[in-house]
Structures are given as structure tokens and as C-alpha cells.
Design a protein that fits this description.
It is a single chain. The chain starts with 5 loop residues before the first strand and ends with a strand. Helix 4 (about 115-125) packs across helix 10 (about 275-310) and helix 9 packs antiparallel against helix 10 (about 275-310). It has a single domain (about 1-410, about 450-475), classed as Alpha-Beta Complex (tRNA-splicing ligase RtcB), CATH 3.90.1860. Helix content is about 35%, strand content about 25%. It is α+β, with helices and mostly antiparallel strands.
């Protein structure tokens, strides 16, 4: 399908409106030549399919870390009209508010590099990870509903972090439209024992150091410096969010005839945003997102506490400070310029991250002058990056950047590669801990695109500015 992509700038490809039957808007891909070569035909097809949905606005935008997802490609951005458009559970994803948290410390890398292996094993002992992992946090029904409404604040009230963390979380750690009563009992059952757990797949807790600073002025404002130790957490809403998606995908599929919606792919099952079904899903999704905010709040604080206790230092000496926490699987009602008017739209970000610019009212006061921090994790063998949003992102991507490196290999192919090469050879010189080898085999660096190339495209296009490069010292995988 690549022949339908027209290159209009060095890093910009477009499928013009009307190229395919039913296509309502153009599809815009942000890619370098190297990433263009890795673009999957099925990812192109999924983005085109999304461009046919009712009420879709302006364009479908596709980030450079794109790969095939459920219905909508990972790395996809879609906005639909609040009044006439739809909301699509599959275009948010099963792991609602899967996201990333970055925590700074006062430690220099030399302080922990010599003890990183035993330190990571201690983190493995303290942080529940992997399929079916449980944290020991028991939630009553009323506590769970309170958490669904309060998000990260609930975790802070339980002692997991300081109050000012909320100033450094997207939407201050809670989406206001959450309604615990539109979430199924089965979802509550699945989430009851998983709060404060990492999960499996590409989720992780990583101890890193700042390897390079690219923008000294912004880095200084953020309080980061070369060789500083930082903690990155990547996790989401676990089985709770997954079940919300499962439940509402069924509802969406069953409501298609009612609303006269025809689809090129049933994985894009959707409902009008203003319909009862659409509003119930949105409120349930907000609840799933709030669970994820609380989950990362607990994981980040517990990891920092584990490092503090292992080193035998005080909180003051550790210097715990949340840089930022943001979502990358979510739908949010926002105002954006469409043509000559500003409209309220439902922005679906599937494996994509907000990149709001300086002075935007939804950027926390701490970053009002720099732009919203964007944390882009790579693979466990190379690097991650910290960026900030730029003004052009509002016009070029509904205020959105990429969310990671993007997969190259399926999990099955990654395991086959490891079996051929040998695990020790593949992860040589990496400190990785996990409950079992299966996840490590699936998450090898070779399974991912080069995150350096991905973030370079984002910066070259004008969506964000690269501030710092983060090098992994030790990684916990599920």
C-alpha cells in the first residue's frame, strides 16, 4: 500500500482525502526514509480505515513509532467532533492510560552503578511484576470506587507520595468525568488485587541516568543534569482497564445498527460520543485512566523508597521529585483549530502522547514556560528521551507526539530470534531482572525500532524539542 503515500516534505507523507472509498479526511504519516521502509501495509490500512469514521476531523495523524494495533494503529491520532462524531474503544486500546512516569533524584550515577545488580534484584523483590501479579493492596468496594474518582490523589492520601506530585501529572492525576457506576463487576474483580503492579509485556520499571543534555536551559528549569539518577515507570490500568475495553467493545458492536454505522473493520466498533453508550464508555474509560494514574503513583513511590532503603539514606538525601506522568492510550475532549474555527473534539491517542506547547492552559504551572514534558521510552538496551511540546504540534498533530520506539518484531519472532542467538548474547552488558525469561525474550532491543531515529523525526517535524537522553542502568520487566 505504500504506493498511495505521497511525500510532501522530508519527513511528511500523505494519503489525500478521497484516495479510498469512504475516506473523509487525509492521513498524514511522520517518517524518515529509514522508518518509511519499516512501515507495515496493515498499519497504513488501519489508519485509512479510521479516516472513514463518522465525525472524524481534519486528518488522521500517524507518529514515527507506528505499528499495527487493534483496529487503529499504535501511534495513531484521531479527533472526532463532540456533537456529530464517535468514540472508539479500540482506538484508545485495551490498556487504558498505559503511560509513563519520570522521577528525578539527587543521586549521581556513580553512587549506584557498582551495586546496580543487587539493587535491581531488591526492586524485583519489592515491586510486583508479571502476569497475574498482586500487590497486597486490598480494596473494598467503596475504596475502589473512591479510587476510580480520585486517581493519583487516592494513592497520595494512602501515603504513596507527596501532595505536590499532583502538579506534575497530566490532568493532575484524575479525569473528572469518571463514573464508577458504569463499570462492570467483572472489571472490579480483575482490578481488585492488581493496584501497584507492573504487569507484563512492554511494561517496566527502569533505573536510568541522564546521559546527554541537549537543551541546557530547559533541563535547568526541570532540575535535571548529566549523570543524574532517574526512575522511569511504564504501566497502565492492568486487568481493570482491559475489561472496560472488552465490555464496551461488545456494547459498541451491538449498537452499530441502532446508529446506522457501517465499518470497514469491526475492530473499529464505535458509538456516537453523545449517545448513552458513548457517554457510558467515556465515563468508564476515565475511571480506568484514574486507576492507571494511581497505579503509577504507587509504583514510582515504592521504587524510590526501595532505592532509598537499599542505600540507607533519607528522603531528603534521595531527593525524590516527580518530573511528569502522562498517558498514551486515551481519549480526551479538547479544543483544537479545525479549518478557520476552534472546535471541541474527542482526541483519541493510541500509543501517542500529548505534546502541548508553552503557555497552553492545560500544561501544569511548573511547565507553562517550557511546554509539557514528553517521556519517550526506548528499549532496555539503548535509550529513552525527555522532550517538551512545541506550538507547531497543535497544528500538525492535535498536540501529540510519539510514545516510544515502536515494535519491529512480533513477540513470537523475538522469541525465535533469542532461541537462535542465545539470551545471554542478546542481552549482553544489560542488567535486566524479571520473574521469568519469557518477557525478556519478547522485549529484546532487536524487537524495537531505534528510538533515537523516532524522536529525531518528532523534533525535525516541529512537534517537540529534545531535552535529554536517558541511559538504562537496570531494568525490571514483568
Amino acid at each position: 500500500m505504500k504506493e498511495v503515500l505521497k511525500k510532501i516534505d522530508e519527513y511528511v507523507y500523505i494519503i489525500e482525502e478521497g484516495t479510498f472509498e469512504g475516506q473523509r479526511v487525509p492521513v498524514v504519516f511522520y517518517l524518515s526514509d529509514a522508518l518509511y521502509e519499516k512501515l507495515e501495509d496493515d498499519a497504513i490500512k488501519q489508519a485509512v480505515n479510521a479516516s472513514t469514521l463518522p465525525g472524524v476531523q481534519k486528518a488522521i495523524y500517524v507518529m514515527p513509532d507506528v505499528h499495527v494495533g487493534y483496529g487503529f494503529p499504535v501511534g495513531g491520532v484521531m479527533a472526532t467532533d463532540v456533537e456529530t462524531g464517535i468514540i472508539s474503544p479500540g482506538s484508545v486500546g485495551y490498556d487504558i492510560n498505559c503511560g509513563v512516569r519520570l522521577i528525578a533524584t539527587n543521586l549521581e550515577a556513580e553512587r549506584i552503578e557498582g551495586v546496580i545488580k543487587p539493587l535491581m534484584n531488591e526492586i524485583l523483590n519489592k515491586i510486583p511484576a508479571g502476569v497475574g501479579s498482586k500487590s497486597g493492596i486490598k480494596l473494598t468496594k467503596n475504596q475502589f470506587k473512591d479510587l476510580v474518582i480520585k486517581g493519583a490523589r487516592w494513592a497520595i492520601e494512602m501515603g504513596f507520595g507527596p501532595e505536590d506530585d499532583l502538579e506534575h501529572i497530566e490532568s493532575f492525576g484524575a479525569l473528572k468525568d469518571a463514573d464508577p457506576d458504569v463499570i462492570s463487576p467483572h472489571a472490579y474483580e480483575r482490578g481488585a488485587n492488581e493496584l501497584g503492579t507492573v504487569g507484563s509485556g512492554n511494561h517496566f520499571v527502569e533505573v536510568q541516568k541522564i546521559e546527554e543534555i541537549y537543551d541546557e536551559e530547559i533541563a535547568e528549569k526541570m532540575g535535571i543534569w548529566k549523570n543524574q539518577v532517574v526512575i522511569t515507570v511504564h504501566s497502565g490500568s492492568r486487568g481493570f482497564g482491559h475489561q472496560i475495553c472488552v465490555d464496551y467493545l461488545k456494547i459498541a458492536k451491538n449498537s452499530l445498527n441502532k446508529y446506522g454505522i457501517t465499518l470497514p473493520d469491526m475492530q473499529l466498533a464505535c458509538m456516537p460520543f453523545k449517545s448513552p453508550e458513548g457517554q457510558d464508555y467515556f465515563k468508564a474509560m476515565c475511571g480506568g485512566a484514574n486507576y492507571a494514574f494511581a497505579n503509577r503513583q504507587i509504583l514510582g513511590f515504592r521504587t524510590a523508597d526501595t532505592i532509598r532503603k537499599y542505600l540507607g539514606i533519607s528522603w531528603e538525601e534521595l531527593g525524590y521529585r516527580l518530573i511528569y506522568d502522562h498517558a498514551h492510550n486515551i481519549a480526551k475532549v479538547e479544543e483544537h483549530r479545525v479549518g478557520n474555527i476552534t472546535k471541541r473534539v474527542v482526541v483519541h491517542r493510541k500509543g501517542a502522547t500529548r505534546s502541548f506547547p508553552p503557555k497552553h492552559p492545560e500544561v501544569p504551572p511548573a511547565y507553562r514556560e517550557t511546554g509539557q514534558p514528553i517521556i519517550i521510552p526506548g528499549d532496555m538496551g539503548r535509550a529513552s528521551f525527555l522532550l517538551v511540546g512545541k506550538e507547531d504540534s497543535m497544528e500538525k498533530s492535535f498536540g501529540t507526539a510519539c510514545h516510544g520506539a515502536g515494535r519491529l518484531m512480533s513477540r513470537r519472532k523475538a522469541k525465535e530470534f533469542v532461541k537462535e542467538q542465545g539470551l545471554e548474547r542478546v542481552i549482553k552488558n544489560m542488567v535486566v531482572v524479571a520473574r521469568g525469561k519469557g518477557t525478556i525474550m519478547e522485549e529484546i532491543p532487536q524487537a524495537y525500532k531505534d528510538v533515537t531515529e523516532v524522536v529525531r523525526v518528532v523534533e525535525e517535524v516541529g512537534i517537540a524539542t529534545i531535552v535529554a537522553k536517558l541511559k538504562p542502568l537496570g531494568t525490571l520487566k514483568g
